[in-house]
């Protein structure tokens, strides 16, 4: 019997500017063929809740990049830190980071990770993963030390669990990688599901 020609899998494009997402993919042995960040407006819509916000942005990032890569599989994600219904901002300055830390201190909050995979045939696969994170009460010294570290910069909710902030986190329930930026179990399932 004639051998079937093996068809090459479509290239995988990671639609992200986050070095964390690239590192997380590498951790599970996945190397995208290209990295092409999406440049979209990430502000929440009026009254938008955290979970639909994470889902909408993951889809929007994937769609924006897919337009530039016909024939590729595009992976995008979005991480949203939420205190109840309130979406915390990405901390770009000290004042914002301080506000976030004050809100998180001694409380449980949720991290929603939206993941979207778009295939060349137009299939859109989406997951939103939820992780509960509880901070201990932050002393004035801890807040000052953390602000001085600069680790909050560019992070949703003003902290990064993969760094110093781990010392202040009392409990996490759910996916750790989701908090860092990409839920690896769900991402692997999506990639495997489309034949990668
Ligand atoms: C809560 C938390 C967030 N983060 C980071 C992950 C994301 O980079 C960032 C959330 O912002 P995102 O908008 O999800 O991602 P991004 O703008 O950095 O990258 P892109 O949109 O191009 O993919 O916060 C951590 O690194 N550790 C944490 O513990």
Automatic annotation (TrEMBL):
Compartmental location: Cytoplasm
InterPro entries: ITPase-like_fam, Maf-like
UniProt-listed CDD domains: Maf
GO cellular component terms attached to this protein's record: cytoplasm
Site positions (Important for substrate specificity): 20, 79, 162
Keywords: Cytoplasm, Hydrolase, Nucleotide metabolism
BP GO terms, sorted: nucleotide metabolic process
Gene3D superfamilies: 3.90.950.10
Entry cofactors: a divalent metal cation
Regions that span the bilayer: none
Active site (UniProt): 78
Known role: Nucleoside triphosphate pyrophosphatase that hydrolyzes dTTP and UTP. May have a dual role in cell division arrest and in preventing the incorporation of modified nucleotides into cellular nucleic acids.
Entry's family note: Belongs to the Maf family. YhdE subfamily.
Name by which UniProt lists this protein: dTTP/UTP pyrophosphatase
Organism: Insolitispirillum peregrinum
């Amino acid at each position: 019997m004639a051998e079937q020609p093996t068809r090459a899998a479509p290239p995988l494009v990671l639609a992200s500017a986050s070095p964390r997402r690239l590192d997380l993919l590498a951790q599970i042995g996945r190397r995208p063929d290209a990295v092409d960040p999406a440049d979209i407006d990430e502000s929440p819509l009026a009254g938008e809740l955290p979970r639909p916000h994470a889902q909408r942005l993951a889809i929007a990032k994937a769609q924006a990049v897919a337009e530039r890569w016909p024939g590729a599989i595009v992976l995008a994600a979005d991480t949203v830190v939420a205190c109840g219904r309130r979406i915390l901002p990405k901390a770009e300055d000290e004042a914002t980071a301080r506000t976030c830390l004050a809100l998180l201190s001694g409380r449980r909050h949720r991290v929603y990770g939206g993941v979207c995979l778009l295939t060349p045939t137009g299939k859109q696969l989406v997951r939103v993963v939820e992780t509960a994170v509880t901070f201990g009460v932050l002393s004035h010294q801890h807040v000052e030390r953390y602000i001085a570290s600069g680790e909050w910069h560019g992070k949703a909710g003003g902290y990064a669990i993969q760094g110093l902030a781990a010392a202040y986190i009392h409990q996490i329930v759910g996916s750790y990688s989701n908090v860092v930026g990409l839920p690896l179990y769900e991402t692997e399932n999506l990639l495997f599901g489309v034949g990668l």
